[in-house]
Specification:
It comes from Gordonia alkaliphila. By secondary structure, this protein is of the alpha/beta class. The chain has 2 domains: 196 residues, 2-enoyl-CoA Hydratase, Chain A, domain 1; 57 residues, Orthogonal Bundle (Lyase 2-enoyl-coa Hydratase, Chain  A, domain 2). 51% of the residues lie in helices and 14% in strands. The two termini are 22 Å apart.
């Protein structure tokens, strides 16, 4: 599967472009719909992806929704509800795949672009990267899960300040807040993110899925509940192909071959 918006690479990385320079790097509705379908194909076993890479085609990762389209809509309420539904379907599919996700965050990640950058397990930025909620600037509230995830990353008080003041976060601030994972030179954002995604695709995807699940449920579990979930998870993984290969490789003092263990 390969076109302008989605590419399944030979190493198992599913690359999804969420914005196009031709549209000012605003969130591309077709990209979100096609990306959601691609993720559903992964879940149906029709696409053998093992990691996801989110990119923007142009100078920016994603400058947010196309406000001109908002203004031109005959029924703005219905129009925005539809856009939010499509974005939420994409975010839900990202999590449902249980695959590690990397974002190549060059330039601006504003509005929905910031939401999607937050959902990545690894977000690679550059000195010119800026994050901004952007919603209050046009009198709107967040979508795409921003108001759910941001306080889980930076804490409620800091999230409230960032959102209500519509703060522009420069690259170093975003890194300090762990909204970005690392900074590289501008021309290295995509190569670095691509490398991380390939490394993850080559790793123990079952363990990654379990780690992501445990982290996401930790805040709603008691300690007693969570250690039981951890015990069940590690026991289940111990008898998977990857779990067996990992332990055997350790005992044999060799590098594990996780891709072969999946078959």
């Amino acid at each position: 599967m390969s076109d302008e918006l989605t590419t399944l690479h030979d190493d198992g990385v599913l690359e999804i472009a969420i914005s196009l320079e031709s549209a000012g790097n605003s969130l591309d509705g077709d990209a979100i719909v096609q990306g959601t379908e691609a993720l559903h194909e992964v879940m149906r076993g029709q696409r053998k992806a093992r990691a996801i890479l989110l990119t923007g085609k142009g100078r920016n990762f994603c400058a947010g929704g196309n406000v001109a389209h908002f203004g031109a809509a005959d029924d703005r309420r219905q129009f925005l509800r539809g856009l939010a539904h499509d974005l939420n379907s994409f975010v839900s599919a990202l999590y449902a795949t249980s695959l590690p996700t990397v974002a190549a965050v060059n330039g601006w990640a504003a509005g929905a672009g910031m939401s999607l950058a937050l959902h990545a397990d690894f977000a690679v930025g550059e000195p010119g990267t800026h994050l901004r909620p952007a919603y209050p600037g046009i009198g709107l509230s967040p979508d795409g899960g921003m108001s759910w995830l941001l306080p889980r990353i930076v804490g409620l008080a800091r999230a409230r300040t960032i959102l209500m003041r519509d703060e522009v976060l420069d690259a170093q601030t975003a890194l300090d807040l762990t909204l970005l994972s690392e900074l590289v030179e501008a021309d290295q954002v995509y190569p670095r993110a691509r490398t991380i995604a390939a490394d993850l695709a080559n790793g123990p995807t079952g363990a990654y899925a379990a780690i992501r699940s445990l982290l996401m449920t930790a805040s709603s579990n008691t300690l007693a509940e969570h250690v039981v979930a951890e015990a069940e998870s590690i026991a289940d993984l111990a008898i998977t192909g990857e779990g067996v290969e990992g332990v055997n490789a350790f005992l044999a003092k060799r590098a594990p071959d996780f891709p072969s263990a999946r078959h």
